[in-house]
C-alpha cells in the first residue's frame, strides 16, 4: 500500500474544525463533474487501524466504499443472496459448494477464478488473529473448475452467511504479500481503491468495467475525522457530502433533511449477576425490571434518538417484533436493603449518564446503588469475572454472520464466552442450542426468538433501549445506503446531483 506521512487524528479533527474546506476536494458543482454523478466527499469516523487489511475491522470500510466484495451478501432479513457467487448448495453435512460468477475481473485486470477465491479464503482461515467470523471455526476452501467447496470441522448451517462478512472479501493475487494484505487496486467492486494516505484519507475512482453495471459517481474522496463535532461541521458547512456517525449532541444542529436515523442491531442492556449477591434471587431481578423507566432514558439521555426495548433484539431486525416476549417471568419482590454495585464504562459517551439516571430510578424504587465507571479496557475483566452486581453494556446483537444466535450463545449460554450475567439455565442452553442447529430462514428466526424469550424469562438481562446510528447526507446526495449492519454506504447507484 502506498503510504505517505499521516496526520494524527486529533490534529486532523482540529484542522477540519478551523478550515473545513481544506479537508475535502472541491464539490461536484465546483468541478463540473455533476453530469456524471461527480465525486462523493465522505467524512468517516474511525481511521484505519490495520492498513485497510480486509482481515481486520478495516474490512468494513472497504465494504462501505464498494471496493471489496464477498461471495454472498445479506438481505434485510439476514438471508444470503448472490454476489461473487451465483448459487450454492449444501453437498454434505459439513460441505457447501459455491459456483463462482463468470465475467468478473479484479481491478488489476486479472479474472476472478475459483482459485482466486480459494486463495483469499485460505489466507483468512490461516490469519493470526483470525477474522471474527471464523473464530473457533475449522474452515477449508478448495477450488475445482468454477466451484469452490467449503468444508467445516462441524456441521454449520450458517456457512453462506459467514461468507458475507467483509472480512472474507475476495482480492486479487497482488494483494497478498507475505503476512500483509494490501487492497489497493485489488478488489472487484464498483470503485477502485487508488490510494490510501495512512490515517488521513483515501481516494477511489469509478470502476468503468464493473460487473454489476454502470457506476454513477466518478469517485470517492474519503477523509477520516474522529471528532464528531468536526464531522457534523463538515456537513453543515457544505464541505462533505456524506458523514457517518453524527453524535446525538450534534444532530439537532443539522437540518432535518440532512440526517437519517437508522436502527442499529445494538442494545443498551443491564446485565444482572445471577450467580451471587442480591440478584441471585429472581424476585430481586424482577424488581429491577419493573423499576426501570426506559422511555425516560431514551428521552433524557438520547434526546429521543433511540428506541425503547421490547426485547434483546431490536428494530434493526425486521422480524424481531414477532417475539412472544416474557412468558414465565418471576414476580417482583421488595427491593433488598443491601447495596448493589453497577458498573459501566466511559468509552460510549452516553453510558455514564445512563448509569446515573438508572441509579436514581432504582433508588426511587427502594434499592441502594453504587456506581463504578471506568474505561472499558480497565473494567471488562472485572465484569466478566462477576465482580459487579450489575453491568450496563451497549452490545451488538448481530455479529458478522448477520445472525443473533452467536450473540445469544456468547452472552447467555452456560459456557458463553461473554456471559456477564453468569447465567447457567438449562432451558436457555437448550433453546440457544436449538437456534444454532436450525437451518437458516424462518424456522431459524423462530428458534432465535424462542431463545430470546427463554433469556427474558430469567431477567438475567434487562434490555433498555436500542441505539440508532445517525447518518448525515447533503441534500443533493442520491442513493446512499442506510444500512443497520454498517456494511454499505456508497453503492454503484450513489451520486451527487
Structure, described:
The protein has 3 domains: 1-65 and 189-255, D-Maltodextrin-Binding Protein, domain 2, CATH 3.40.190.10; 68-182, Dipeptide-binding Protein, domain 1 (Alpha-Beta Complex), CATH 3.90.76.10; 263-469, Dipeptide-binding Protein, domain 3. Residues 1-22 and 25-35 have low confidence and may be disordered. The longest helix has 17 residues, at 442-458. A hairpin with a 2-residue loop joins strand 6 and strand 7. The protein contains 14 helices and 21 strands. By secondary structure, it is of the alpha+beta class. The strands form 5 sheets. Strands 1, 10, 11, 12, 13, 14, 15, 16, 17, 18 and 19 form an 11-stranded mixed β-sheet that branches. A 4-stranded antiparallel β-sheet has the order 4-5-7-6.
Q: Name the helicity range.
A: 10-25%
Per the CATH scheme, the topology name of the largest domain is: Dipeptide-binding Protein, domain 3
Overall pLDDT confidence: 90
Largest sheet: 11 strands, mixed
* Beta-strand content: 15-25%
Q: How far apart are the termini? A: 32 Å
Shape: globular
Q: Any idea how many domains?
A: 3
Q: Give start-end ranges of low-pLDDT stretches.
A: 1-22, 25-35
Rg, Cα atoms, Å: 24 Å
| Helical segment count | 14
Q: Based on helices, strands and strand pairing, what is the structural class?
A: alpha+beta
CATH architecture assignment of the largest domain: Roll
* Quantity of strands, as a count: 21
CATH superfamily of the largest domain: Dipeptide-binding Protein, Domain 3
CATH class of the largest domain: Alpha Beta
Amino acid at each position: 500500500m502506498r503510504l505517505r506521512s499521516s496526520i494524527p487524528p486529533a490534529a486532523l479533527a482540529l484542522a477540519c474544525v478551523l478550515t473545513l474546506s481544506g479537508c475535502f476536494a472541491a464539490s461536484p458543482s465546483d468541478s463540473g463533474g455533476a453530469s456524471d454523478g461527480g465525486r462523493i466527499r465522505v467524512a468517516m469516523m474511525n481511521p484505519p487501524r490495520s492498513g485497510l487489511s480486509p482481515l481486520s475491522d478495516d474490512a468494513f470500510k472497504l465494504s462501505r466504499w464498494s471496493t471489496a466484495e464477498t461471495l454472498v451478501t445479506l438481505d434485510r432479513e439476514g438471508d444470503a443472496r448472490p454476489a461473487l457467487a451465483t448459487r450454492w448448495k449444501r453437498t454434505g453435512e459439513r460441505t457447501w459448494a459455491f459456483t463462482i460468477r463468470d465475467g468478473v475481473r479484479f481491478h488489476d485486470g486479472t479474472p476472478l477464478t475459483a482459485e482466486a477465491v480459494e486463495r483469499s479464503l485460505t489466507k483468512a482461515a490461516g490469519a493470526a488473529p483470525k477474522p471474527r467470523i471464523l473464530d473457533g471455526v475449522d474452515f477449508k476452501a478448495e477450488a475445482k473448475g468454477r466451484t469452490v467447496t467449503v468444508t467445516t470441522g462441524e456441521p454449520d448451517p450458517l456457512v453462506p452467511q459467514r461468507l458475507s462478512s467483509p472480512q472474507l472479501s475476495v482480492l486479487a493475487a497482488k494483494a497478498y504479500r507475505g503476512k500483509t494484505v494490501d487492497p489497493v487496486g485489488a478488489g472487484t467492486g464498483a470503485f477502485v481503491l487508488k490510494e490510501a494516505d495512512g490515517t488521513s484519507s483515501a481516494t477511489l475512482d469509478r470502476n468503468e468495467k464493473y460487473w454489476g453495471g454502470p457506476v454513477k459517481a466518478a469517485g470517492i474522496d474519503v477523509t477520516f475525522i474522529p471528532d464528531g463535532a468536526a464531522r457534523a461541521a463538515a456537513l453543515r458547512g457544505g464541505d462533505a457530502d456524506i458523514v457517518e456517525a453524527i453524535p446525538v449532541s450534534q444532530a439537532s444542529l443539522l437540518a432535518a433533511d440532512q440526517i437519517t436515523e437508522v436502527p442499529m442491531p445494538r442494545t443498551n442492556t443491564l446485565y444482572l449477576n445471577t450467580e451471587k449477591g442480591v440478584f441471585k434471587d429472581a424476585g430481586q431481578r424482577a424488581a429491577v425490571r419493573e423499576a426501570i423507566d426506559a422511555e425516560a432514558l431514551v428521552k433524557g439521555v438520547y434526546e429521543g434518538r433511540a428506541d425503547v426495548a421490547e426485547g434483546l433484539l431490536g428494530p434493526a431486525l425486521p422480524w424481531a417484533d414477532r417475539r412472544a416476549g416474557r412468558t414465565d417471568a418471576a414476580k417482583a419482590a421488595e427491593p433488598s436493603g443491601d447495596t448493589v454495585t453497577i458498573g459501566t464504562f466511559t468509552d460510549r459517551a452516553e453510558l455514564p449518564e445512563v448509569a446515573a439516571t438508572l441509579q436514581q430510578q432504582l433508588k426511587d424504587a427502594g434499592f441502594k446503588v453504587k456506581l463504578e465507571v471506568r474505561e472499558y479496557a480497565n473494567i471488562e475483566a472485572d465484569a466478566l469475572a462477576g465482580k459487579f452486581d450489575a453491568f450496563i453494556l451497549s452490545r451488538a446483537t448481530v455479529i458478522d454472520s448477520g445472525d443473533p444466535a452467536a450473540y445469544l450463545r456468547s452472552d447467555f449460554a452456560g459456557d458463553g464466552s461473554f456471559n456477564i450475567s453468569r447465567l447457567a439455565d438449562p432451558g436457555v442452553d437448550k433453546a440457544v442450542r436449538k437456534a444454532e442447529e436450525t437451518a437458516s430462514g424462518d424456522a431459524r428466526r423462530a428458534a432465535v426468538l424462542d431463545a430470546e424469550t427463554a433469556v427474558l424469562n430469567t431477567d438475567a438481562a434487562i434490555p433498555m433501549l436500542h441505539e440508532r446510528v445517525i447518518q448525515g447526507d447533503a441534500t443533493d446526495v442520491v442513493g446512499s445506503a442506510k444500512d443497520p449492519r454498517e456494511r454499505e454506504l456508497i453503492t454503484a447507484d450513489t451520486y451527487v446531483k
